[in-house]
Protein backbone atom coordinates (compact mmCIF):
# COMPACT_ATOMS: atom_id res chain seq x y z
CA UNK A 1 0.00 0.00 0.00
CA UNK A 2 1.15 3.54 -0.75
CA UNK A 3 2.67 5.10 2.35
CA UNK A 4 1.68 8.64 1.39
CA UNK A 5 -2.06 8.46 1.02
CA UNK A 6 -3.00 4.85 1.80
CA UNK A 7 -4.14 3.99 -1.74
CA UNK A 8 -3.56 0.54 -3.21
CA UNK A 9 -1.34 1.53 -6.12
CA UNK A 10 1.92 3.30 -5.34
CA UNK A 11 2.69 3.90 -9.05
CA UNK A 12 -0.58 5.81 -9.53
CA UNK A 13 -0.05 7.66 -6.26
CA UNK A 14 3.35 8.77 -7.46
CA UNK A 15 1.69 10.46 -10.42
CA UNK A 16 -0.88 12.20 -8.27
CA UNK A 17 -0.50 15.92 -7.60
CA UNK A 18 -2.12 17.99 -4.95
CA UNK A 19 -3.76 21.32 -5.76
CA UNK A 20 -4.29 23.80 -2.93
CA UNK A 21 -7.71 25.43 -3.21
CA UNK A 22 -8.81 27.20 0.01
CA UNK A 23 -12.29 28.03 -1.23
CA UNK A 24 -15.54 28.30 0.73
CA UNK A 25 -18.08 25.74 -0.45
CA UNK A 26 -20.89 28.29 -0.16
CA UNK A 27 -18.91 31.03 -1.94
CA UNK A 28 -21.31 31.05 -4.88
CA UNK A 29 -24.33 31.58 -2.63
CA UNK A 30 -22.47 34.38 -0.88
CA UNK A 31 -21.70 35.95 -4.26
CA UNK A 32 -25.38 35.78 -5.24
CA UNK A 33 -26.30 37.29 -1.86
CA UNK A 34 -23.88 40.19 -2.51
CA UNK A 35 -25.48 40.68 -5.95
CA UNK A 36 -28.93 40.76 -4.33
CA UNK A 37 -27.74 43.30 -1.75
CA UNK A 38 -26.35 45.56 -4.47
CA UNK A 39 -29.51 45.18 -6.59
CA UNK A 40 -31.70 46.08 -3.61
CA UNK A 41 -29.53 49.01 -2.53
CA UNK A 42 -29.59 50.47 -6.05
CA UNK A 43 -33.39 50.53 -5.82
CA UNK A 44 -33.44 51.75 -2.19
CA UNK A 45 -35.27 48.57 -1.27
CA UNK A 46 -34.47 46.61 1.88
CA UNK A 47 -35.14 42.93 2.47
CA UNK A 48 -36.05 41.05 5.63
CA UNK A 49 -35.67 37.27 5.85
CA UNK A 50 -38.39 35.65 7.98
CA UNK A 51 -37.65 32.17 9.29
CA UNK A 52 -39.48 29.74 11.58
CA UNK A 53 -40.79 26.23 11.84
CA UNK A 54 -43.77 25.46 9.57
CA UNK A 55 -47.01 26.83 11.03
CA UNK A 56 -45.50 29.49 13.31
CA UNK A 57 -47.71 32.11 11.66
CA UNK A 58 -45.43 33.82 9.16
CA UNK A 59 -48.03 34.26 6.42
CA UNK A 60 -50.79 35.36 8.80
CA UNK A 61 -48.46 37.96 10.35
CA UNK A 62 -47.53 39.22 6.88
CA UNK A 63 -51.19 39.54 5.82
CA UNK A 64 -51.94 41.73 8.84
CA UNK A 65 -48.67 43.65 8.57
CA UNK A 66 -49.05 44.55 4.89
CA UNK A 67 -52.52 46.00 5.49
CA UNK A 68 -51.56 47.81 8.70
CA UNK A 69 -48.43 49.58 7.39
CA UNK A 70 -49.79 50.22 3.88
CA UNK A 71 -49.91 54.01 4.45
CA UNK A 72 -46.24 54.25 5.45
CA UNK A 73 -44.40 51.25 4.04
CA UNK A 74 -44.94 49.43 0.75
CA UNK A 75 -44.35 45.73 1.29
CA UNK A 76 -43.65 43.14 -1.38
CA UNK A 77 -43.24 39.46 -0.62
CA UNK A 78 -41.16 36.51 -1.78
CA UNK A 79 -42.89 33.34 -0.60
CA UNK A 80 -40.83 30.19 -0.15
CA UNK A 81 -42.54 26.81 0.12
CA UNK A 82 -41.76 23.35 -1.15
CA UNK A 83 -45.02 23.25 -3.11
CA UNK A 84 -48.21 25.18 -3.94
CA UNK A 85 -48.85 28.85 -4.80
CA UNK A 86 -51.22 29.18 -1.79
CA UNK A 87 -49.22 31.64 0.30
CA UNK A 88 -48.48 34.01 -2.58
CA UNK A 89 -52.21 34.02 -3.38
CA UNK A 90 -52.98 34.96 0.25
CA UNK A 91 -50.47 37.81 0.08
CA UNK A 92 -51.78 39.10 -3.27
CA UNK A 93 -55.26 39.25 -1.73
CA UNK A 94 -53.91 42.03 0.53
CA UNK A 95 -52.99 44.05 -2.57
CA UNK A 96 -49.24 43.53 -2.23
CA UNK A 97 -46.96 42.14 -4.91
CA UNK A 98 -45.90 38.56 -4.26
CA UNK A 99 -43.79 35.96 -6.05
CA UNK A 100 -43.95 32.31 -5.04
CA UNK A 101 -40.77 30.24 -5.08
CA UNK A 102 -41.38 26.50 -4.89
CA UNK A 103 -38.24 24.68 -3.87
CA UNK A 104 -39.54 21.17 -4.66
CA UNK A 105 -37.52 18.87 -2.44
CA UNK A 106 -35.33 21.77 -1.27
CA UNK A 107 -35.64 22.71 2.40
CA UNK A 108 -34.51 26.35 2.26
CA UNK A 109 -34.23 29.36 -0.03
CA UNK A 110 -30.87 30.15 -1.61
CA UNK A 111 -29.65 33.55 -2.80
CA UNK A 112 -29.88 32.74 -6.52
CA UNK A 113 -33.56 31.74 -6.16
CA UNK A 114 -34.27 35.01 -4.35
CA UNK A 115 -32.34 36.96 -6.99
CA UNK A 116 -34.62 35.62 -9.72
CA UNK A 117 -37.72 36.23 -7.59
CA UNK A 118 -36.67 39.84 -6.86
CA UNK A 119 -36.42 40.64 -10.55
CA UNK A 120 -39.86 39.18 -11.16
CA UNK A 121 -41.25 40.98 -8.09
CA UNK A 122 -39.82 44.33 -9.26
CA UNK A 123 -40.40 46.12 -5.92
CA UNK A 124 -40.88 49.90 -6.11
CA UNK A 125 -38.24 52.24 -4.61
CA UNK A 126 -38.49 52.50 -0.82
CA UNK A 127 -40.31 49.18 -0.48
CA UNK A 128 -39.50 46.50 2.06
CA UNK A 129 -39.29 42.99 0.62
CA UNK A 130 -40.40 40.40 3.13
CA UNK A 131 -38.86 37.05 2.27
CA UNK A 132 -40.85 34.24 3.85
CA UNK A 133 -38.38 31.37 3.98
CA UNK A 134 -39.34 27.69 3.83
CA UNK A 135 -40.67 26.60 7.23
CA UNK A 136 -37.65 24.91 8.78
CA UNK A 137 -35.57 25.71 11.87
CA UNK A 138 -32.35 24.16 10.58
CA UNK A 139 -31.28 24.83 7.00
CA UNK A 140 -32.45 28.40 6.17
CA UNK A 141 -30.11 29.92 8.79
CA UNK A 142 -27.07 28.83 6.80
CA UNK A 143 -27.89 30.63 3.57
CA UNK A 144 -27.42 34.39 3.24
CA UNK A 145 -30.06 35.72 0.83
CA UNK A 146 -28.86 39.33 0.64
CA UNK A 147 -31.27 40.50 3.32
CA UNK A 148 -30.53 43.39 5.67
CA UNK A 149 -32.14 41.72 8.70
CA UNK A 150 -33.30 38.31 9.87
CA UNK A 151 -36.45 37.72 11.88
CA UNK A 152 -37.10 34.39 13.59
CA UNK A 153 -40.67 33.59 14.63
CA UNK A 154 -41.59 31.13 17.36
CA UNK A 155 -45.19 30.33 18.24
CA UNK A 156 -46.12 29.76 21.87
CA UNK A 157 -47.30 26.22 21.05
CA UNK A 158 -43.72 25.23 20.18
CA UNK A 159 -42.51 25.41 23.80
CA UNK A 160 -40.01 27.61 25.60
CA UNK A 161 -36.87 25.65 24.77
CA UNK A 162 -36.81 25.90 20.95
CA UNK A 163 -34.02 28.53 20.89
CA UNK A 164 -31.65 26.23 22.81
CA UNK A 165 -32.66 23.23 20.71
CA UNK A 166 -32.11 25.09 17.41
CA UNK A 167 -29.24 27.45 18.31
CA UNK A 168 -27.93 27.92 14.76
CA UNK A 169 -31.23 29.51 13.73
CA UNK A 170 -31.70 31.73 16.79
CA UNK A 171 -28.12 32.99 16.91
CA UNK A 172 -28.49 34.68 13.49
CA UNK A 173 -31.73 36.50 14.43
CA UNK A 174 -31.84 40.30 14.57
CA UNK A 175 -35.36 40.11 16.00
CA UNK A 176 -37.38 37.28 17.58
CA UNK A 177 -41.17 37.40 17.34
CA UNK A 178 -43.06 35.22 19.82
CA UNK A 179 -46.32 34.61 17.94
CA UNK A 180 -49.87 33.48 18.82
CA UNK A 181 -49.69 34.92 22.34
CA UNK A 182 -53.50 35.07 22.35
CA UNK A 183 -53.28 31.30 23.03
CA UNK A 184 -51.33 31.76 26.30
CA UNK A 185 -54.41 31.32 28.56
CA UNK A 186 -54.72 27.75 27.23
CA UNK A 187 -51.05 26.77 27.53
CA UNK A 188 -48.38 26.21 30.16
CA UNK A 189 -45.88 28.54 28.50
CA UNK A 190 -43.39 30.63 30.47
CA UNK A 191 -42.35 33.73 28.53
CA UNK A 192 -39.36 34.36 30.81
CA UNK A 193 -38.06 30.85 30.17
CA UNK A 194 -38.39 31.47 26.44
CA UNK A 195 -36.52 34.80 26.63
CA UNK A 196 -33.81 33.11 28.72
CA UNK A 197 -33.50 30.38 26.11
CA UNK A 198 -33.04 33.03 23.40
CA UNK A 199 -30.36 34.78 25.51
CA UNK A 200 -28.29 31.58 25.76
CA UNK A 201 -27.61 31.74 22.03
CA UNK A 202 -28.33 35.37 21.13
CA UNK A 203 -27.50 38.12 23.63
CA UNK A 204 -28.88 41.05 21.68
CA UNK A 205 -31.98 40.25 19.57
CA UNK A 206 -35.14 41.88 20.97
CA UNK A 207 -38.00 39.46 21.72
CA UNK A 208 -41.44 40.84 20.85
CA UNK A 209 -44.60 38.96 21.90
CA UNK A 210 -47.31 39.35 19.26
CA UNK A 211 -50.62 38.00 18.08
CA UNK A 212 -51.62 38.83 14.52
CA UNK A 213 -55.22 37.62 14.89
CA UNK A 214 -55.83 39.37 18.27
CA UNK A 215 -53.83 42.48 17.23
CA UNK A 216 -51.53 42.27 20.26
CA UNK A 217 -48.03 43.78 20.42
CA UNK A 218 -47.98 44.59 16.72
CA UNK A 219 -47.12 48.29 17.06
CA UNK A 220 -43.54 47.49 18.12
CA UNK A 221 -43.15 45.08 15.18
CA UNK A 222 -44.50 47.66 12.74
CA UNK A 223 -42.13 50.25 14.19
CA UNK A 224 -39.18 47.88 13.76
CA UNK A 225 -40.25 47.22 10.17
CA UNK A 226 -40.68 50.93 9.34
CA UNK A 227 -37.13 51.50 10.61
CA UNK A 228 -35.93 48.98 7.98
CA UNK A 229 -37.36 50.90 5.03
CA UNK A 230 -35.14 53.33 3.16
CA UNK A 231 -36.05 57.01 3.58
CA UNK A 232 -37.13 58.54 0.26
CA UNK A 233 -34.31 61.11 0.07
CA UNK A 234 -31.23 58.98 0.82
CA UNK A 235 -29.57 56.09 -0.95
CA UNK A 236 -28.80 52.65 0.46
CA UNK A 237 -30.53 50.55 3.10
CA UNK A 238 -30.53 51.69 6.75
CA UNK B 1 -31.01 18.31 4.52
CA UNK B 2 -28.87 21.23 3.37
CA UNK B 3 -25.92 18.83 3.07
CA UNK B 4 -27.22 17.93 -0.41
CA UNK B 5 -27.02 21.59 -1.52
CA UNK B 6 -23.57 21.87 0.06
CA UNK B 7 -22.41 18.71 -1.72
CA UNK B 8 -23.74 19.84 -5.11
CA UNK B 9 -21.79 23.10 -4.70
CA UNK B 10 -18.70 21.23 -3.53
CA UNK B 11 -18.63 18.87 -6.52
CA UNK B 12 -19.38 21.66 -8.98
CA UNK B 13 -16.71 23.98 -7.54
CA UNK B 14 -14.02 21.30 -7.76
CA UNK B 15 -15.10 20.13 -11.22
CA UNK B 16 -14.87 23.70 -12.55
CA UNK B 17 -11.38 24.17 -11.09
CA UNK B 18 -9.65 21.09 -12.50
CA UNK B 19 -8.99 20.28 -16.17
CA UNK B 20 -11.66 18.08 -17.74
CA UNK B 21 -9.23 15.24 -18.51
CA UNK B 22 -8.00 14.67 -14.94
CA UNK B 23 -9.44 12.38 -12.33
CA UNK B 24 -9.89 13.78 -8.82
CA UNK B 25 -8.74 11.12 -6.35
CA UNK B 26 -9.03 13.00 -3.07
CA UNK B 27 -10.81 16.08 -1.78
CA UNK B 28 -9.64 17.66 1.48
CA UNK B 29 -12.28 19.60 3.38
CA UNK B 30 -12.64 21.56 6.58
CA UNK B 31 -16.11 21.24 8.08
CA UNK B 32 -16.18 23.11 11.38
CA UNK B 33 -17.98 21.54 14.30
CA UNK B 34 -20.25 24.60 14.62
CA UNK B 35 -20.86 25.02 10.89
CA UNK B 36 -24.26 23.34 10.92
CA UNK B 37 -23.07 20.90 8.24
CA UNK B 38 -22.89 17.24 9.23
CA UNK B 39 -20.15 15.12 7.74
CA UNK B 40 -22.10 11.85 7.65
CA UNK B 41 -24.89 13.01 5.29
CA UNK B 42 -22.27 14.96 3.32
CA UNK B 43 -20.33 11.74 2.69
CA UNK B 44 -23.57 9.95 1.77
CA UNK B 45 -24.52 12.71 -0.70
CA UNK B 46 -21.01 12.96 -2.11
CA UNK B 47 -20.97 9.45 -3.57
CA UNK B 48 -24.29 10.13 -5.32
CA UNK B 49 -23.50 13.64 -6.56
CA UNK B 50 -19.95 12.79 -7.69
CA UNK B 51 -21.06 9.79 -9.80
CA UNK B 52 -20.27 10.39 -13.46
CA UNK B 53 -18.14 13.49 -12.75
CA UNK B 54 -14.37 13.89 -12.55
CA UNK B 55 -14.77 13.38 -8.79
CA UNK B 56 -16.32 9.91 -9.20
CA UNK B 57 -14.74 7.61 -6.61
CA UNK B 58 -12.72 10.37 -4.95
CA UNK B 59 -11.91 10.02 -1.27
CA UNK B 60 -13.12 12.70 1.13
CA UNK B 61 -10.66 13.72 3.86
CA UNK B 62 -12.56 15.85 6.31
CA UNK B 63 -10.91 17.86 9.06
CA UNK B 64 -13.33 19.10 11.71
CA UNK B 65 -11.97 22.25 13.39
CA UNK B 66 -13.40 22.68 16.90
CA UNK B 67 -15.59 25.58 17.95
CA UNK B 68 -13.67 28.55 19.34
CA UNK B 69 -14.81 31.95 20.46
CA UNK B 70 -13.78 35.17 22.16
CA UNK B 71 -15.80 36.47 25.07
CA UNK B 72 -17.08 39.99 24.44
CA UNK B 73 -17.28 40.66 28.18
CA UNK B 74 -13.89 39.50 29.52
CA UNK B 75 -11.89 38.93 26.32
CA UNK B 76 -11.01 35.30 27.08
CA UNK B 77 -10.59 32.73 24.30
CA UNK B 78 -13.16 29.98 24.85
CA UNK B 79 -13.51 26.37 23.67
CA UNK B 80 -17.02 25.88 22.35
CA UNK B 81 -18.19 22.26 22.04
CA UNK B 82 -21.61 23.73 21.12
CA UNK B 83 -23.38 27.08 20.79
CA UNK B 84 -24.81 26.95 24.32
CA UNK B 85 -21.56 26.83 26.28
CA UNK B 86 -20.85 30.07 28.18
CA UNK B 87 -17.49 31.66 28.86
CA UNK B 88 -15.89 30.82 32.22
CA UNK B 89 -17.01 34.28 33.39
CA UNK B 90 -20.64 33.27 32.80
CA UNK B 91 -21.21 35.40 29.70
CA UNK B 92 -22.98 34.05 26.63
CA UNK B 93 -21.82 37.01 24.57
CA UNK B 94 -19.19 35.16 22.60
CA UNK B 95 -17.94 35.98 19.13
CA UNK B 96 -17.19 32.83 17.12
CA UNK B 97 -13.60 32.68 15.92
CA UNK B 98 -13.49 29.07 14.70
CA UNK B 99 -15.61 26.05 13.93
CA UNK B 100 -17.81 27.58 11.21
CA UNK B 101 -15.59 26.55 8.28
CA UNK B 102 -17.15 24.85 5.24
CA UNK B 103 -14.12 24.93 2.99
CA UNK B 104 -12.29 22.97 0.32
CA UNK B 105 -8.59 23.10 1.23
CA UNK B 106 -7.01 20.87 -1.45
CA UNK B 107 -7.71 18.30 -4.13
CA UNK B 108 -5.49 15.49 -5.36
CA UNK B 109 -5.67 14.72 -9.07
CA UNK B 110 -4.03 12.34 -11.52
From TrEMBL, chain A:
Species for this entry: Parafrankia soli
Pfam families referenced in this protein's UniProt entry, alphabetically: cobW
Gene Ontology BP annotations: protein maturation
GTP-binding recorded as keyword: yes
Protein name (database record): Hydrogenase accessory protein HypB
Domain CobW/HypB/UreG nucleotide-binding: from-to ranges: 48-208
CDD domains the UniProt entry points to: HypB (cd05390)
InterPro entries hit by this protein: CobW/HypB/UreG_nucleotide-bd, Hyd_mat_HypB, P-loop_NTPase
UniProt family annotation: Belongs to the SIMIBI class G3E GTPase family. HypB/HupM subfamily.
MF-aspect GO terms: GTP binding; GTPase activity; nickel cation binding; zinc ion binding
Key words, A-Z: GTP-binding, Hydrolase, Metal-binding, Nickel, Nucleotide-binding, Zinc
UniProtKB/TrEMBL annotation, chain B:
Molecular-function GO term, any one: nickel cation binding
Pfam families in the record: HypA
InterPro entries, per the entry: Hydgase_Ni_incorp_HypA/HybF_CS, HypA/HybF
Single GO biological process annotation from the record: protein maturation
Gene3D superfamilies: 3.30.2320.80
Record: residues binding Zn(2+): 71, 74, 87, 89
Record: residues binding Ni(2+): 2
Keywords: Metal-binding, Nickel, Zinc
Membrane-crossing residue ranges in chain numbering: none
Highest taxon of the lineage: Bacteria
UniProt family annotation: Belongs to the HypA/HybF family.
General function of this protein: Involved in the maturation of [NiFe] hydrogenases. Required for nickel insertion into the metal center of the hydrogenase.
Name of the protein: Hydrogenase maturation factor HypA
Species name: Parafrankia soli
Amino acid sequence: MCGTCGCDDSREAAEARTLRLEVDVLARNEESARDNRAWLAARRVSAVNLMSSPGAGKTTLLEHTIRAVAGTVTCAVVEGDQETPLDAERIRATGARAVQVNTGTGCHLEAAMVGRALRELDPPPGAVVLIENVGNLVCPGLFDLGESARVVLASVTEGEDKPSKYPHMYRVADLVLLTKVDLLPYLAFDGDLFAGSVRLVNPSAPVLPVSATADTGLADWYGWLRARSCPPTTGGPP
Amino acid sequence: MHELSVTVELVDMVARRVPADVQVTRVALEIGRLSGVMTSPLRFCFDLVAAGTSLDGARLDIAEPPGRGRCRRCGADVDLPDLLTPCGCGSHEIELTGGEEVRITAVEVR
